[in-house]
């Protein structure tokens, strides 16, 4: 319980530093997510820029894809730089590196929950929400965040060694975004390409859980090689990088 209270204090501190001087404070982050989702919905739905071979309700398909990806992208970018941003505090305290790595994950859980409220309300209004799948859908988001955390243990430490890889991570996040079927429906060679993206299966599981009547588009066992690889990367970060990182702080 003591570590949880310390972690929550660190999360609040991180929010305060990120949004210091902002007119809307942390509310700006949630507003930004909703505006981004609305803009994509405007372009792909109102202007009808979509694949005609989609399933019955492309609106639900689009919104759930964005709901899944936006918090994941925030976790990827923020998690990579969290140790570097707290370098001075890490030097002055004995809290340990791992506790700081959980800061962006807690923020990810908060962002996912808050952003999901208007999306789930719309899906319920349109009759496309699987009410039994709401809790399980959020559980999929929780597990997807933990899945990414395996990689962030390595990337956050690598960010210290290489000074700052945040611009590269932002670029990679865009490649990952277009490499998963968030805004389009996977068919043909594109579907085969999607299978090489480590976040395609978690997204497919999330949609299958949340959208009523949605049929899985991929074989879920394809995630096993990625899960195994991410776990090996996590072990490498914990066993090989730990002492080196402490010297570079």
Automatic annotation (TrEMBL):
Organism field: Leptospira kemamanensis
Coiled-coil parts of chain: none
Transmembrane segment boundaries: 21-46, 58-78, 99-125, 131-155, 167-186, 220-237
KW Disulfide bond (keyword) present: no
The family this protein is said to belong to: Belongs to the ABC-2 integral membrane protein family.
Keyword terms: Membrane, Transmembrane, Transmembrane helix, Transport
GO biological process: lipopolysaccharide transport
Protein name (Swiss-Prot/TrEMBL): ABC transporter permease
């Amino acid at each position: 319980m003591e570590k949880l209270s310390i972690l929550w204090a660190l999360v609040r501190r991180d929010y305060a530093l990120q949004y210091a001087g902002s007119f809307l404070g942390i509310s700006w982050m949630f507003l930004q997510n909703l505006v981004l989702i609305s803009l994509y919905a405007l372009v792909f739905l109102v202007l009808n820029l979509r694949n005609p071979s989609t399933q019955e309700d492309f609106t639900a398909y689009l919104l759930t894809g964005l709901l899944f990806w936006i918090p994941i992208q925030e976790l990827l970018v923020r998690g990579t730089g969290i140790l570097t941003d707290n370098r001075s505090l890490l030097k002055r305290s004995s809290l340990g590196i791992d506790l700081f790595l959980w800061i962006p994950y807690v923020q990810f859980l908060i962002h996912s929950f808050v952003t999901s409220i208007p999306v789930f309300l719309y899906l319920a209004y349109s009759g496309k929400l699987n009410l039994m799948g709401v809790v399980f859908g959020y559980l999929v988001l929780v597990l997807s965040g933990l899945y990414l955390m395996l990689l962030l243990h390595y990337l956050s430490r690598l960010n210290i060694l290489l000074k700052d890889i945040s611009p590269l991570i932002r670029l990679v996040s865009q490649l990952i975004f277009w490499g998963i079927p968030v805004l389009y429906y996977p068919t043909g060679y594109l579907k085969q390409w999607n299978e090489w993206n480590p976040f395609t299966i978690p997204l497919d599981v999330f949609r299958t859980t949340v959208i009523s009547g949605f049929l899985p588009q991929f074989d879920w066992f394809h995630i096993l090689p990625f899960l195994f690889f991410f776990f090996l990367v996590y072990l490498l970060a914990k066993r090989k990088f730990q002492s080196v990182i402490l010297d570079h702080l």
